[in-house]
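Instructor's aside before we start: the two examples that follow are unrelated to each other. I chose them only because their records fit on one page, so don't look for a connection. First example below.
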Amino acid sequence: MLNLLRNWKERHFSDPQRIILGLMLLAGIGIVYFLGSLLTPVFVSIIIAYLLDGLVIPLHQRIGLPRIAAVLVVFMLFIAGMTIMILWLLPLITKQVTQLVQQLPRMLVTLQSSIMQLPAPYPELISKKQIVDIIGFLNVSIADMGKQVLSLSLASVVGLIHLLVYLVLVPFMVFFLLKDKTAILSWGQRFLPDNMDLTASVWQEANAQVSNYIRGKCWEVLIVWAVSDVVFRVLDFQFSMVVSLFVGLSVLIPYLGVTVMGMVVSLIAFVQWGISGNFIAILAAYTIIQILDGTLLAPLLLSGVVHLHPVAIVVAVLLFGGLWGVWGLFFAIPLATLINAVLKVGFTRNDPLADLPVSDPG
């Protein structure tokens, strides 16, 4: 057993480039873990600049615009989009979120009264004791919700200050990250070891998949959001703007997002209409949107982008969601893709067994 472990260690960690790759990964994880709360505006700016650079490169390389001109065009579009979102979209969403929070107690009361009536028609499925337990859980949920709303209101001033800081710092840093990309990368490379071919290969593998995945997901979020909003408005569904927004964002969380939002849509529709034709129409519309997204839209936008097994995706969502909460859920797939690239490139390079065909378990 010891010889097996020793051979595995010599096989994978005798290469200095693999050691460099491991140190780079540990340094990145350490910076995010220990300095994440302090450098959040910097990380947000880097992510936005990374996404916008995908628009700058085609303008510069394919159309022939100078780099600075392409940066200015993309940055002005970014500022215009942010302005529209802040002045028009954000007030609408804030208004509907406020209305939704105000009506949550009424929704839960309506749900309680409906649950209380379940033992009569379905005594074999649910007992009165189970009903009492469910009602107790809902009452505790209402109390916790009130405390959370109060804490949010008390923290609103601090949140407003943070928002103002983001509105000033993030666009400023995004512009200079785009404008001085080459200079910043050259400066950073001066502090890195010379022989980093393996790390560069891992970055190229991960960058090719992650960049296409993120851009494809951004388009998917926008399309699902827009389609859901139009459908919900046509069906006169309450809180159509904010619910459709979260339906769009739910595509970022594989499997779990669709399920949770399905429950939310069902609850709001049930409180609004009860078990009726409108209720069934909303559920049918939501189901059709998700089917079209899963069978047509997502494969079209993400075809061949991420090669991860569904089990690996679920594990990534659970793991990173548990570590970093909501942000971990959103970035679970890019992080899993990075890990996959590290394993694929970093631990199969110069491996005589890597090129052997894999037998089909079926």
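Example two begins here.
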Amino acid sequence: MRQFLSPKIKPTPAIFFPFLLLKSSTAIPKTQSLPMSWTCSVCTFINPSSHQKPTCQICLSSQPSSSLALSQSPSPTKPKWACKACTFLNQYDNSSCEVCGTRASASLLSILENDDDDFDELGSGVGDVFLPLRACNSGSTSNKNKRKIWESSIGDANDLADSGNDFRGVKAASREVQCVAGETGLDRGNKPVKIMSYNVWFREELEMHKRMEALGDLIQLHSPDIICFQEVTPNIYEVFQQSSWWKLYRCSVSDDEAFTRAYFCLQLCKLSVKSYSCRPFANSVMGRELCIAEVNVQTERTMIVATSHLESPCPAPPKWDQMYSKERVNQAKEAIKFLEKNPNVIFCGDMNWDDKLDGQFPLSDGWVDAWVQLRPSENGWTYDTKSNKMLSGNRTLQKRLDRFVCNLRDFKISEIEMIGMDEIAGLSYCKEKKVKNEVKKLMLPVLPSDHYGLLLTICPQQRK
């Protein structure tokens, strides 16, 4: 619940809420004093309350002044900023006043541009191009009124409670899904099943609506049965909801859930879904998780389709070495270990995988990498700064970040293709590129995302 103040009323500490770790439905007494963690606005790392320095542990960015002042207060409070026009106290992650729309003095929407002078010593690894993740556009006033602070649901990353299984849980393990009229897996016969995976890119100020419309055109063209999205923001979620294709799918995320996260993974399914579930990774400092759909494909044949956005490389001064390779590899191992108990499993998403840095993807016996299996002679780069002209001006990065890995008993993989590689007709944007001491303006085309999508087709095996 969001509390509002009249601009003319002097705020008191009573109206603030501390960051609370949601370990169960039991309410924490109001008299309990909790130290406050804070999230870095540059790299999204959740700095624990035990970290006493006013700089981020990962990228050394300064703690927001409002958050710093509140953390030094004996009464833990949620950081806010006062609008210079109407004095309304806004949540710190809002870049514009909720009441009058006046922008904060420090914009949360700016995107770090690459300066070649700062990267002379870097190589061609993933982290050399991926600058630290930044907060997404906070969106319209109507959206802001719906949202909660993401960090209040995640809490201190170092204090998450063990749920007793392979993952630490802060979300419900599963949710029943009501089926709607239409074709379900039970009456499909031997029809092939199409699964799409796509990182939609949370950069909202770069033609978000047009990019999502183009992505919707791809959905209507290929008509996937199951869709796995990564980097969906609340605003992107709303654009999807207003699309004509949306009503054909059952969604893994409710409206309430969609407005509690800065960005998240989303699953959509045309088939009969037994349940959706979500399991946060134990070692993630970025709130990453494994999202799972249990789908009825045929009578007595179910399939698990899981997606994730594994830990992102996040290089920053002074060492530029925060690559999170160990965390990423362990997350992949956790996911495979948890999923492999099922006879039919597909795991897809933005793995942020760098074979040179992370090694081979940790597949157990029986698992196959769909791209390697079906198109072994092709590189499969889903992030390519050379072929994706929208990314011109970035340092060169060509990696197979997005993948489908499968362990199937009753199905076989038959086809995989890369989608979203075409420029959006008649659309361009201006990118400022700093080269030494000169700023150059580049007019570049726009594609649906900075990633390319993947579309996998599987077919049922003949029953013996």
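The CA atoms of residues 10 and 352 lie 47 Å apart.
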